[in-house]
Amino acid sequence: MNPRVERTSYEGEPVKLALIMQTGTEGDRIFPIEDGRTVIGRDGRCDLRIPMPSVSARHCEIALENRKAVLLSRDPECETLLNGEPISKADLSDADEVRIGPVTFLVSITRTTADGSTAMSIER
């Protein structure tokens, strides 16, 4: 089963992008990132909801911008971390770690090449 969602393009190639939350004994939880903007936060209207007090209502978002996946922090009071560093805006790459409040996600970017095959660099 491939839980990732088709994106329009990334560096000229179609890609599938997902956030993976490793939950230990329960197995991984995979959250496909939809084309356009995906808002992440505590609010029930967010595309990806994290109902925890340390997560702000609209904590951050992931956007497709200039054919790149971009992570944008939306609340200056609550840090969004990329690979352990606070960011306001940063490009995402395969195997990056995104921390939102107490939750850490692994970024999965799978590219589809011209011959239809896929390339994924995360080793699990």
Give a description of the structure.
The protein is mainly beta and 124 residues long. Helices cover 0% and strands 48% of the residues. Strands 1, 2, 3, 8, 9, 11, 12 and 13 form an eight-stranded antiparallel sheet that branches. The chain is globular and about 45 Å long. It starts with a strand and ends with a strand. Mean pLDDT is 82; it is low at 1-10.
Explain briefly what this protein structure is:
The chain is mainly β.
Feature tags:
124 residues, five-stranded mixed beta sheet
Nearest-angstrom radius of gyration? Answer: 14 Å
Mean pLDDT: 82
- Compressed to H and E, one letter per element, the order equals EEEEEEEEEEEEE
Number of strands: 13
Topology:
Elements: E1 5-6, E2 15-22, E3 28-32, E4 37-41, E5 48-49, E6 60-65, E7 68-73, E8 80-82, E9 85-86, E10 89-91, E11 97-100, E12 103-112, E13 118-120
Parallel strand pairs: 4-5
Antiparallel strand pairs: 1-2, 2-3, 2-12, 4-6, 6-7, 7-10, 8-9, 8-11, 11-12, 12-13
